[in-house]
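During the no-cost extension, the postdoctoral fellow (Dr. R.K.) reprocessed legacy sequence entries with the updated structure-token encoder. One reprocessed record is reproduced below for audit purposes.
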Amino acid sequence: MQIYIKIIWAYLKIGIFGFGGGYAMLSLVEKSVVDPGWISETTFTDIVAISQMTPGPIGINSATYIGYVAPGTAAPELSSPIWGILGSIFATLAVTLPSFFLVLYCSHFIRRHNESGIIKSIFSGLRPVVVGLIASAAIMLMNAANFNPQGINWQLYTNIVICAAAFILAYFPIKIGNNKFKIHPIFIIIAAGLAGYIIYG
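Re-encoded structure tokens follow.
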């Protein structure tokens, strides 16, 4: 049963210190769940991909899934769905409640002191930190588990091409005649899934 205490403690820390949203907290999540051996690095990257495609914030989605699989991984006697659901509930509550109470208090505090030079300076310092955390999450996901899980060179090059194509389609607008438009991320996700099925299926 100690695994539940560890899950709650890990996600309380993530909920309290996960500044900047889901992408910014990814490195903190990985440190908390991969290092103890609850899930593998490959499973973690799969969770990130699924969490981005499913409705809801990535931090909560990943907490729900990791809370489900972690008890069975840590203790085989807790591998039944009931123990997994209990872990999901604990992880989800632990990651959301600190944020709820912090935002509740901070919104009242900031409303009273929004013209304060100290508050403005604090936010000025936090903005680049959030950008750095998001950048570290992007670099963290550029690993063998994502690009070359089987150690095959042609898969590595193919995955790099898919990644580059997705970035170009998402970032740069396409010009047709006098009109410019960007492809919706949903269509890019569907196209990448189809490409993966055709290439690796």
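The radius of gyration is 20 Å. The chain has a mean pLDDT of 83. The remaining legacy entries will be reprocessed before the final report is submitted.
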